[in-house]
């Protein structure tokens, strides 16, 4: 084991610190109350990031860029830049299912999010780009599905290997989303987008939800990355007592 890995185990492993001082508390797989408390503990201690362990900051979480082509608004693509997301440190487990035979996990997380972003609206067939800001507030339910493997190190200690995930998103309740006034007026005046605006008005709420979920799904790539990173230096028993 490399010196850096030994250092991480000593510093971050729940078993190497005083009771309650680690990143996690070890739970039984079906003990949702314990898992919820462990999640809160992990998020509290890691939300600002731990670079030495490749755990990234999630509150605020900054996504440099994200492109979304709105299928219901013909000829328009949304280019988000410097997306700032707050609220992820307060996310709660809604459900957790682990199948030890299939080595699969379904993790559902509920969270209230605030999103602020720069936005470029690009119109196909026209070189024009309209720029402004985008803000959104929503309660979201993110579902991550992934498989895992268990591997022993040279000391016989078992560690999780978290395999690639699939993330889906749904909105709970009615989300809020808005553009700054100048961008709204520019969009309404543009001849190339009038038809798209009419389509948007008919499906306003659906469009809001799809746009927010695109951002949420991208954000949860980082959330799952942090679980994967922690699993590289925290023994499997630090996560679960009955693994």
List keywords for this structure.
243 residues; alpha+beta; Bactericidal permeability-increasing protein, domain 1; 6-stranded antiparallel beta sheet; 6 helices; disordered N terminus
Secondary-structure topology with pairs:
Layout: H1 3-12, H2 32-46, E1 61-69, E2 76-86, E3 92-99, E4 104-123, E5 129-152, E6 158-179, H3 181-189, H4 194-202, H5 204-231, H6 236-239
Antiparallel strand pairs: 1-2, 2-4, 3-4, 4-5, 5-6
Structure explained in plain terms:
The chain is an alpha+beta fold and 243 residues long. The chain has a single domain (43-238), classed as TULIP domain (Bactericidal permeability-increasing protein, domain 1, Super Roll). 31% of the residues lie in helices and 39% in strands. It contains six helices and six strands. The protein has helices spanning 3-12, 32-46, 181-189, 194-202, 204-231, 236-239, and strands at 61-69, 76-86, 92-99, 104-123, 129-152, 158-179. Strands 1, 2, 3, 4, 5 and 6 form a six-stranded antiparallel β-sheet that branches. It is elongated, with a radius of gyration of 21 Å. The model is unreliable at 1-21 (pLDDT under 50). InterPro entries: Haemolymph_juvenile_hormone-bd, To_sf. Residues 1-18 form the signal peptide.
């Amino acid at each position: 084991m490399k010196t850096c890995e030994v250092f991480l185990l000593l510093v971050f492993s729940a078993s190497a610190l005083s009771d309650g001082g680690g990143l996690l508390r070890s739970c039984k797989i079906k003990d949702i109350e314990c898992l919820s408390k462990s999640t809160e503990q992990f998020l509290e201690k890691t939300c600002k990031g731990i670079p030495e362990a490749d755990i990234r900051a999630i509150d605020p979480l900054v996504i440099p860029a994200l492109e979304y082509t709105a299928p219901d608004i013909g000829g328009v693509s949304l280019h988000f830049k410097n997306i700032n997301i707050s609220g992820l440190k307060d996310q709660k487990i809604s459900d957790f299912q682990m199948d030890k035979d299939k080595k699969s996990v379904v993790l559902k997380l509920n969270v209230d999010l605030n999103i602020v972003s720069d936005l470029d609206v690009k119109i196909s067939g026209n070189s024009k780009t309209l720029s402004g800001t985008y803000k959104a507030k929503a309660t979201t339910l993110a579902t991550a599905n992934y498989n895992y493997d268990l591997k022993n190190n040279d000391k016989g200690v078992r560690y999780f290997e978290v395999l690639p995930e699939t993330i889906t998103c749904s909105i709970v309740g009615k989300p809020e989303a808005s553009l700054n006034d100048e961008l709204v007026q520019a969009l309404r005046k543009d001849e190339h987008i009038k038809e798209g605006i009419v389509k948007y008005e008919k499906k306003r709420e659906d469009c809001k939800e799809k746009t927010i979920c695109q951002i949420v799904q991208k954000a949860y790539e980082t959330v799952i990355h942090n679980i994967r990173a922690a699993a590289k230096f925290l023994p499997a028993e630090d996560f679960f007592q009955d693994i």
